[in-house]
Amino acid sequence: MEPIYALWFLFMDYMSYSDAKLDSRVKRVFHKYDFQGESGLLQFWECSTHEGTNDIGCSLTLTDQFCMSNIHDNRLLDYRTRCFDNSNRFIGQQTNVGIWFAGRAAQTGVADHRTRHVVFNQDLNQYIDEASGMGQLVVPVYFNHPGAGMKLAGIIEHITTQPKESYIADFNQIHNLLMRENLSSMYMGKTIKVKYNHHIVKFRLPFSAKLPDLKKQVTMRFKEWESKTLCIKYEDTNRNRHSILSDHELEFCIAESISSRTSVIRMYIEENLTEKSLKVGQRKRHLSQNKRQNMNFIEFGKEGMVSKGKVQIMPSG
Predict the structure, then answer these.
(1) Which InterPro entries does this one have (predicted)?
(2) 32, 177 contact by CB (below 8 A)
(3) Which of 46, 137, 193, 313 is most exposed, with minimal Cβ within 10 Å?
């Protein structure tokens, strides 16, 4: 057999093995997923690239891999049927994906969710034709391709008949299950802009982040705060500032941003009040000491000065 044909068969065997392995991995993720007693659907859109073309992107094809909770709802099957009607679509960098959530996740490479706030907000109800009245979570799935690094394998789509306030817990569960199968995903997060004096830094913070995670990101960029007590405040939609002093307050800050559909959370570093009061106290004590020292001397004509209990004669002229 010619070497080139041998390589071709090895390549085809590898591709078949990879597809089968990916299929079984996704199947195990779906099997282990806990719907928490809610009505929902999991389905997988597989990503395949166009060999021999100059197109940058992939085709998303709805696979047979799906899982439904024990609480059945005909709307879930109706939605899956509609997906099959248009189940093979090419997604390029400039493709207008419109309201298609799975396509948007393939294009951006980042997880996203459609929460209760969006579904029931009349001004933001642009997704009504896709999954009318239901909530959605889309999670990009990546695998480590030998010699090519992380590659997009497809999109896991989670549909719930009752839209949730947030799908962070659902994303975390899927993400953890993917990691057990040597797969990964891009976390859900918010863009954070932090201002200190006249400097502004920007970074992504996961929805599941805790206060130490936020402080770590800030001190990585503002080295002068590594040994100081941070006082971070965020700006709400009314431009009021609120301190973030606990994990709960950070969680509330992120949840408020999600519900208001703001893309950026603005934060500010302010000097800790305790440290500030200490500095003010030290400054006052220093001024008081200088004042007492100056009061020890009283001008006494041109010939000299009088100090406490002592006369010091200064030569005139």
Answers:
(1) NLP, PB1_dom
(2) yes
(3) 313
pLDDT tens for each residue of 137-189? 999 999 887 666 788 899 999 999 999 888 888 998 999 999 999 998 877 77
The helix, strand and coil proportions of the chain, stated in percent and rounded to the nearest 5, come to: 40, 30, 30
Co-location of 113 and 162 in the same domain: yes
Same-domain pairing of 70 and 179: yes
Task: Note whether residue 293 is domain-resident.
Answer: no
Sorted by sequence, the CB contacts under 8 Å of residue 115 that are 6+ apart come out as 135, 163, 164, 165, 166, 167, 258, 259
Residues 153 and 7 in one domain: yes
Question: pLDDT (tens digit, 9 = 90+) per residue, 31-49?
Answer: 999 999 999 999 999 998 7
**Which residue matches tokens 């609120």?**
242
Taking the whole predicted model, whether its pTM rises above 0.85 is answered as no
Q: Which of 39-43, 58-62, 134-138, 278-282 has the lowest mean pLDDT?
A: 278-282
166 and 203 share a domain?
A: no
d(CA 146, CA 149): 6
Burial letters 221-253, b for 16+ CB under 10 A, else e = ebeebeeeebbbbbbeeeeeeeebeeeeebbeb
CB of 214 closer than 8 Å to CB of 250: yes
Residue 305 contacts residue 314 (beta carbons within 8 Å): yes
**55 is written with which tokens?**
């197109």
